[in-house]
Give the backbone structure.
Amino acid sequence: MVPMQDMDDLLNAHPFFAGLSPRLLEELAGCARNERFDAGDYLFQEGGVADRFYILRHGQVAVEVKAPHAGAVVLETLHTDDTLGWSWLVPPHHWTFDARAVTLVRAVSLDGVCLRGKMETDHELGFHLLSRFVPVMGERLRAARLQMLDLYAPPGLTPPA
Amino acid sequence: MGAGQPNSGGSGEPGPVRLLGDGVAALMAVLRAAGREVIGPTVRDGAIVLRPLKRPDDLPRGWHDRQEAGLYRLDWEDRPTRFAHAAPAQGWKRVLHPPEACVGTAYRGGIASSAEGADAGPDGPCWAAPEASPPLRAFFGVRPCDLAALSVLDGILANPAAGYHDPAYARRRRDTLVVAADCASPAATCFCAGMGTGPGVGDSGFDVALTELVEGDAAVYLARAGSPAGAALLEAVEHRPASDAERAAATDQTVRATKAQTRALPADPRAILARATEHRHWADVAARCLACGTCTLACPTCFCATVEDATSLDGVTAARTRRWSSCFTEAFSYIHGGAVRGTRGARYRQWITHKLSAWYDQFGTSGCVGCGRCVTWCPVGIDITAEVAALSETRPSHRRRGPARRPVDGSATPRRRKDDPPAP
Amino acid sequence: MDAAAAAALADRLTETAAAARLPASLTEGDPWRPRPFRIDRWRRDLSDTFTVDLVPLDGPPLTFAPGQFNMLYVHGAGEVPISISGDPDQPERLVHTTRAVGQVTNAMKALRVGDTLGVRGPFGTPWPVEAAFGHDVVIVAGGIGLAPLRPLIHAVLARRERFGTVVLLYGARTPEDILYRAAVTAWRGRFDMSVHVTVDRATGRWSGPIGMVTKLIARGGFDARDTMAYVCGPEVMMRHAAQALIDKGVAAERLFLSMERNMKCAIGLCGHCQWGADFVCKDGPVFRYDRVAARLAQAEV
């Protein structure tokens, strides 16, 4: 277990939390803990209870979906400093995809139940957390849309404009 | 093109001269005697077109044209005039920058698709350029708008300051003499006056400039030289100095032809088009435009071309042919996967924006000379002057429902729209 | 007019007209003449993409600057604009990488070693190399867009000491679609260059990143405020990559991209490749981003 003060520093150093006040960092640190995954471990799996999110301190995670005959199709990979998971924010709080460690992964997880409880009463915390999640979601959506275009496909395969 | 200074001919006579007798017949005879193919206006298939002329009677004596948006008609009266018409159906680019011209022939073995079966080795012929010597020509009766168009084409295809040029065009141009003629009878589609290209012939760009005047029941001609070659031509025909009255008649005729023009492009179309890139009016044009490309064929400055390949049956020679092409076709902007400009609105926007705006950036001048051909020959009567006017309208042309915006003057009363119900 | 007078007039007209009108240089030359080159090496890069090494049959090698293109002529089939992909410091081998997507490129794909091709060029504006001296260099490629960037990579590595950090960010469709795999692997092994490759989709055998190349830009690894960036790929990819670079702090006037349009003549006379007021063949294909950003966002220009 990391001492609380160290967790404050750890969160403070992460770009996702940049600019948060010491009070809010302390609130977040109260819901946070360090985690470590070996290559091949699942951080979470589709359908499981989405009770946390991760900020990646080191390593690579594949977000994937199992499909018949295709095995696991990797939708995207996430890397050091990326944020992973927002199903904890959206009822019914179930994971929609799998997340698998491709390499050794060191991450900080934040407990979703703990955070949801605090956000209910502490709207300032809720505001700051959501205003950090929305751009991440927007960026992922943009990347997904561009991927959907299959930009580098041979011309015949490009979806009509 | 620096065809010399006005009146710089060697005849020593300042100002215009009056040709004696039938001056036009005399000038044509001299040109033909000097080995020139004379090309000029003549009536063919119900229109005035530019064709080789064998004799003065080939000129459209007594004919005049009626031109409106989407309309062209010829009428004949017993009049002595030969140049009482506006822009002929086609411009002179048809001769100088032909609709179809071989740019060269490739030989298998030189540039072969396969080494197997090659007729000539690497040292054999690989490429033959077409005939380098065009015929000697004289353009006869060139309208001022078309004179401006020649200058525009020169600036694109034979510009010494540009990095590239078209030598075949330059050779044809070099071997062409230009006999221009003032325009006394503009059509309703003409707007050269506003473009500054007519209706009078300016000071340069021609070898000889003619003015046709009517005296009683005869046509008489004033002429001035615009180059040493023009001066040499005038020396070879009978003439006397023009009288003050004749000069005044020529000036009056040009003033009347200026006043007779009703169409004009709005001032500064560049600024209008720069603001109009996403204008609702493009969709309006697109709904009418057939994307037939007639405007680009009729336009005397549209120069775009493609190159097509045709192989002989034995596969030995492959001719490469340059053909006019039109930005209104889908293939024009094709890159692998599809056309860049897929809609008619986008193609019309490309054409008019190139013509009236990008042309300045590319060649330092407008691509439009005000000849009105695109207006006349458009099968649905799309009018470049009217379209620019509509594009200058800052209020979207599309009718919209929604809350009325405050007027730009800041007053509280909403501005009435045409489609609003009348105020109670 | 008698015959002698007519002949004298004809001579005078020809002399005075020719002298007054055009510099002789304008009536000479043949811009359409292709030079014959022999295919010295042919190799398949991807299922639809191949590379030819060409040597001239009629004279000196064709020197070029990174980013320029040639018109390649296949006998009877036609001519296509193809960017040059070789090392500008080794012009004796003219290298072209082509994707077979149309009639001419498919005919070219059927050629083999010993066959000849016609070449006109080089044409167009180059990637500015010297302007990056003393700065970090970020090269962003998407798909076959790596081909026009390879001469730039050669040129930069040949003068490696003149630049700061050198980064190549490359997005491909799948791991099997990575162009110049051997070269990319070799670049990756260098200590003086960082190479990141991402793919749009992959099976589990691929352990690298999956996602858009824009994510590689966001991850950084260069001093954005002191960076020259070069982008080539499909237009949509270039728009988003340019925005990601700008968001990162790269100056718009230090960002260059290479455009593709229909080209028939390559010398600004046929009109096909117009993009706004520019002819892509002679005013491009390499453009400075700040000069074209507004136009890039517009459809059907």
Observations:
- The CA atoms of residues 25 and 142 of chain A lie 29 Å apart.
